[in-house]
Design brief:
259 residues
Length: 259
């Protein structure tokens, strides 16, 4: 096996297995402390966080003249909703610290060239996740909720009126599912670029299976998004666009053929 050049050496000192396990425990402990601190802070502000998550629906209900309120049908639902909101917020806010601890544990075993190759992808990961979550919050939620609320019928109409009375837990399930789905979906360029970087996929291969990938995007959107065409398309179309971006990114980072 050829040795790495001196300028590309691994910046690490030999460590016995026990020391690696001790360091791993230390990294996991710091990550857990960061998560639980974020959890308790988020639990203190759980009402404000939920108000922020509920704002898109509240605005839609106000525009349609409905009652901008939610209900819960069991005594424990409000409490467990606050716990889930706190867990969601803690996972979101503690992610940079957890990711940094993972990087600090893994980085000493990498060559300098490998570190330089991975850092742009690591930096792009939270940015793309935030872009996906922002697209869901600021664009998809208003469009989807307007569609759902349109099925309500006002009082005085023929037959019994249909009033929108969303449950707290069900709304939170929908919001968290969409935020997570859009955030993960926007990681597609990072995942495919990394695979291209190590030679598992190529831009040529991605172009060859483009039509099958497009169909797969719509299938994924149908699984992750609520069962309405509008919301599914708002997830599938960005996925298709991200796949095309992934082809360009893969072309830039894939190993060049030796002449």
């Amino acid at each position: 096996m050829a040795k790495a050049p001196i300028e590309d050496a691994i910046n690490d000192k030999p460590m016995p297995l026990l020391e690696h396990l001790v360091e791993l425990r230390s990294r996991l402990l710091r990550s857990a402390i960061a998560f639980f601190l974020a959890f308790f802070v988020c639990y203190h502000f759980a009402g404000r966080i939920y108000s922020f998550l509920a704002a898109p629906l509240a605005h839609v209900l106000e525009r349609h003249g409905g009652n901008a309120a939610m209900i819960f049908t069991s005594l424990t639902e409000g409490f467990f909703t606050n716990l889930r909101v706190s867990f969601f917020g803690a996972a979101f806010f503690s992610f940079p610290i957890v990711a940094s601890q993972v990087w600090l544990f893994v980085a000493p075993g990498l060559y300098r060239s490998e570190k330089k190759a991975l850092l742009p992808f690591l930096a792009a990961t939270p940015v793309l996740f935030l872009l996906g979550a922002a697209l869901a919050y600021y664009f998809v939620f208003p469009v989807a909720f307007t569609f759902f609320v349109s099925f309500a019928t006002p009082k005085g109409a023929a037959g019994l009126p249909i009033e929108v009375m969303p449950k707290v837990s069900e709304y939170l399930d929908l919001v968290m599912k969409l935020v997570f789905a859009f955030g993960v979906a926007f990681e597609l360029p990072v995942a495919l670029s990394l695979l291209a970087k190590v030679g598992i996929v190529s831009s040529k291969g991605l172009r060859k299976v483009r039509r099958y990938a497009w169909v797969g995007m719509f299938v994924i959107a149908a699984i992750l998004a609520p069962p309405d065409v509008i919301t599914q398309c708002t997830l599938a179309l960005p996925l298709v666009a991200l796949y095309e971006v992934s082809i360009l990114a893969a072309r830039m980072v894939e190993p060049k053929p030796v002449a």
